[in-house]
């Protein structure tokens, strides 16, 4: 079974963890939502095939998980919190571009139920949000409600389509990213066991982890 890795980013309390738990367990966390959950696994059916999705939550104080070179970054913001939307441009896009330009991005607007019920006023209009995101170079955008299970399925079906389409047009970048994943795995073995577990780059010593990561950028 093919497995894809997603890293989920966004400000605290925008609903990242709720989205992950809703997709992976089918349940909404309720009144108590952990600030950051452990990585979760979800299995989807896409075009008559089963695909595993490894969902990795992030904390705003620790973004090192972004360097895992996933297949997709998902940036979440709350539809009722303008600052979380502004931080896409101020914080998260610069961070992701500093890591790699070869990984697609999907932006998700959360807490749609609060907007629909008019409990909280949304900032801007959906059309204006789409317009701003396009100026930032982002064309993949979905709005959802984890509480009401609204558009959750759409997010992850769309995410796979994005990856498949992106992979066709960035085969070289994909290969480089696979090498980075393999190198990261090797570094983990070195840290844990004190020796190189696999033979990656055995015959080509010129690539260190730092130089390869710079190459990806």
From TrEMBL:
Family annotation (SMART domains): RAB (SM00175), RAS (SM00173), RHO (SM00174)
Organism domain of life: Eukaryota
Keywords: GTP-binding, Nucleotide-binding
Gene Ontology BP, a term: small GTPase-mediated signal transduction
Protein name per UniProt: Rho family gtpase
InterPro entries tied to this protein: P-loop_NTPase, Small_GTPase, Small_GTPase_Rho
Lineage summary: Eukaryota, Metamonada, Anaeramoebidae, Anaeramoeba
Database matches in Pfam families: Ras
Originating species: Anaeramoeba flamelloides
Molecular function via GO: GTP binding; GTPase activity
Keyword GTP-binding applies: yes
Keyword Chaperone: no
């Amino acid at each position: 079974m093919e497995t894809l890795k997603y890293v989920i980013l966004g400000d605290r309390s925008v609903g990242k963890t709720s989205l992950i738990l809703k997709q992976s367990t089918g349940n909404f966390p309720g009144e108590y939502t952990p600030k950051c959950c452990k990585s979760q696994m979800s299995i989807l059916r896409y075009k008559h095939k089963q695909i595993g999705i490894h969902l990795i939550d992030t904390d705003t104080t620790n973004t090192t998980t972004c360097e895992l070179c996933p297949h997709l970054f998902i940036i979440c913001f709350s539809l009722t919190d303008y600052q979380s939307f502004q931080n896409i441009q101020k914080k998260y896009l610069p961070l992701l571009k500093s890591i790699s330009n070869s990984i697609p991005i999907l932006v998700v607007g959360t807490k749609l139920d609060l907007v629909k019920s008019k409990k909280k006023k949304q900032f801007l209009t959906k059309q204006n949000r789409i317009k701003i995101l396009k100026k930032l170079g982002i064309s993949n955008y979905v709005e959802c409600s984890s509480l009401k299970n609204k558009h959750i399925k759409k997010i992850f079906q769309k995410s796979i389509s994005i990856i498949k389409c992106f992979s066709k047009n960035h085969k070289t970048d994909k290969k480089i990213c696979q090498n980075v994943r393999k190198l990261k795995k090797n570094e983990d073995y070195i840290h844990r066991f004190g020796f190189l577990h696999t033979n990656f780059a055995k015959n080509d010593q010129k690539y260190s982890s730092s130089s390869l990561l710079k190459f990806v950028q």
